[in-house]
Structures are given as structure tokens and as C-alpha cells.
Amino acid sequence: MSGHSTYQPKSSFGKWFDARLPVYRLFHDSFVSYPVPRNLNNWYTFGGILAVMLISQIITGIVLAMHYTPDAALAFQSVQLIRRDVTYGGLMQSWHAVGASFFFIAVYIHMFRGMYYGSYKAPREVLWILGVVILLLMMATAFMGYVLPWGQMSYWGAQVITNFFSVIPLVGDSVREYLLGGYSVGNATLTRFFSLHYLLPFMILGVVILHVWALHVTGQTNPTGVEVKSEQDVVPFTPYATVKDALALVIFFAVMAYFVFYLPDYLGHADNYIEADPQVTPAHIVPEWYLLPFYAILRAVDFNIGIPFTDIVIIDSKLGGILAMVGSIAILFFLPWLDTSDVRSGRYRPTFKIFFWLFAINCVFLGYLGSRPAEGIWIPLTKAWTFFYFAHFLLVLPLLGWLEKPLPRPASITDAVLGARKDSSGASQLEGAAAAPETKG
């Protein structure tokens, strides 16, 4: 529903420039006159929030890189100097660190909204896949950024994560040594991670541009899951969507600002404010909170897989855990084909709605389990909730497409909006009629 361009240059210079490089026309058609469904709710504002957050992280990252020293002997102190001696350095460092956490909060909400409203279904499979690629790049960027302060958790987290590469058959040890720049985590590792942490956000920006491009080709979904059928179903992006996005952005940044100014270290780990010491291992090595669900899935596989009744091991526990962790993300690429239902929106799928919220609770609880030590009751709980994670994609979604009976869907977006208004108006009239006798009494 992008339609023909409505941009008309008014000045002579505007007409001349537009005929040679129609940059403003592109901006106007993409963010001003671009038609969006008229029934978008507040959950659809997180795409815009993520775009602003990405730019914010890139800008603050560039400023911090001007003062940071990627040297194992100086890195920890350089971060402290940035916070205490550089003008507005504390603000920049806190904004960048807290911003990473809020970036993941926004992206997880954005993805769960897409899963609930079926934004991954045809013809938007590529749009969804690009979103998963962005998630992977974000996780890699965040992990490498977590290493840069060169605290205890930074150092030992890098030690644990880089060991994963050694399980890759044939080339694992070589890949790990190249990534580390040697045989152990050290100065060369820090230099490599700093370079990649600086580079990856620009790769994310490139994939985001493709993501937005794919969105404009297929058009935006909406809470009803019904495709746009007429001009009555849409409104211009500006001012309708931009005003809503701007309000959501102000609220989001207000909450984030509270953490930046009053709780800048609340979302970090206390051990990471101790300088890295290769001779002292932390009692409990954990990643940042936004990676904890995947860390829990990694630890859920603590057994070898082999041929029954023999001593032959095909997949040991270490490789099995890594395959499970990688699989928990890789399975998202196949979500458009694992969900066999023809109904897009969860609003009209009563059984799916129950399983969706159970899945959301499961992901949050996996994050909690990832923060617990691998002992006692936490071990069987982690295995059970990891099983449910994969069962949701491999069993629940395929079976629901065949067994679930969906609710009736509206014929169009306009019918859904007008029907909701009519129902609301009717309910108000009934409430007024019911209250009238009491007033007379």
C-alpha cells in the first residue's frame, strides 16, 4: 500500500535537486506520507524506539572510544577515568551501559509482539529473519562490549564464552586461538574485541536498513492480522504514528534516565567493578541479564549423548549444551514455517494465546534459572523449562495449526475499528440505562 509518491517540491532548487538525488522524496515517502494501518496499538511503537536507541548507542560508543584504552594493563583504569575525569564522561558511560540493557528490553518486547500478532507469517518471512539476524548481532556486540571494562566478570566471561569455539570439529581450536590472539585471554583478545565491538553496531545499522526496507515492501501488520484492503484502512505515518511513537519514546527514555542518573550500576554485576585477575575465579560466572535465558539452556545439557548400551559418545555434554544454546536462537529462523495456522493474530486464537503467555513466562523464568548456581533443585528445573522452550516451537505451534478453532475475524481493518467503537458505545449506553433507575430511586 505504499502507492505513488505524493511529494511535490515547492522551490526551484527543490525541484532541481529532487530530479538528481531524491533524498527528501525518499524520506517523505517513507516517514511522512507512508500509509500505516489505522488500528496500531502502543506495542507497535518499539520499532521506532529501537531505531533511536541504536543511534544513541552508536553516538555514545564513539565518544567513549575516544577516551578508552584497549590495553589489558590500562583498560580498567581508563573506564574509571572516563567516569570521573572526562567531562560528562560518567553520563556517557552510564548512558551507554544502561542503554545496552534497555536496548534488549525493547528488542525482546518487539519480538514478543511480533510473535503474538504473527508478524513472521507470509509474506513477511524475510522481515522476521532479518530481525533475528539483528538479535544475533546485538548479542555478539553486547558480549564483546561486556569484556571491555576488563573487570572480573569481563575477563572470566570471555574465558568461558571463547572456550565454546573449541568444540567445533576440526577447526575449533584454530578459531578460538585466532579470536583470542593466542592461547589465553589477554591483551590481544581485548584489542580484537574492541575492534569488533566498534564495527558490529554499523553492521547492525546496515541490517536495520534492510529490515525497514523489507517492512516497506510488505507493509506493516496490525493487531487484527488482516491485510490492508482499502485506503480507509490506513492513515499517514505522520502525524498519526509519529505522535504515538514520540510519546512512547519520551516515556521509555524517562524510565531509562532514572536508571542512568540514580541507579547506573544496578543492572551490572558487582564483580565487574573489580579489576580482572587471572589468578582469582569468581564464585559464580554469569553473563549480563539479557543473555541469561540462553545461558540457562546451555547449562541444561549436562549429559552425554551416545549409542545405547555402549560406551560410544556421539555428543558430549559440552557440545550438547552449545548446540542447545545455538539451537534456541536458530529455531527462531524457522518460526514462519513451524507455525502452521492460517490465522495471523493471536487475538483470534484462544488456545495459542494461553501457550504464548506460558512461553513468555518460561523465557523470563529461564533467565532467573540462568542466574542460579548449577546445583540442587535448579538443575531439574532448568532441564524442564528448556524442554518446554523447544516444545513450544516443535510441538505446540505445529499442532495448534491443525487442532485449534480460531475465533471469527473481521472482514477488514476498518470493520474491526468501527466494530470496536460500536461495541464500546453500546456498552456505555447499556451502563447508562442500568444506572438510570438507581438515580431515580
UniProtKB/TrEMBL annotation:
Pfam families: Cytochrom_B_C, Cytochrome_B. Binds 2 heme groups non-covalently. Keywords: Electron transport, Heme, Iron, Membrane, Metal-binding, Respiratory chain, Transmembrane, Transmembrane helix, Transport. It is a multi-pass membrane protein. Its cofactor is heme b. Signal peptide: none annotated. Its main location: membrane. It comes from the Bacteria. Residues 13-224 form the Cytochrome b/b6 N-terminal region profile domain. Component of the ubiquinol-cytochrome c reductase complex (complex III or cytochrome b-c1 complex), which is a respiratory chain that generates an electrochemical potential coupled to ATP synthesis. This is Cytochrome b. It comes from Pseudahrensia aquimaris. The lineage of its organism: Bacteria, Pseudomonadati, Pseudomonadota, Alphaproteobacteria, Hyphomicrobiales.
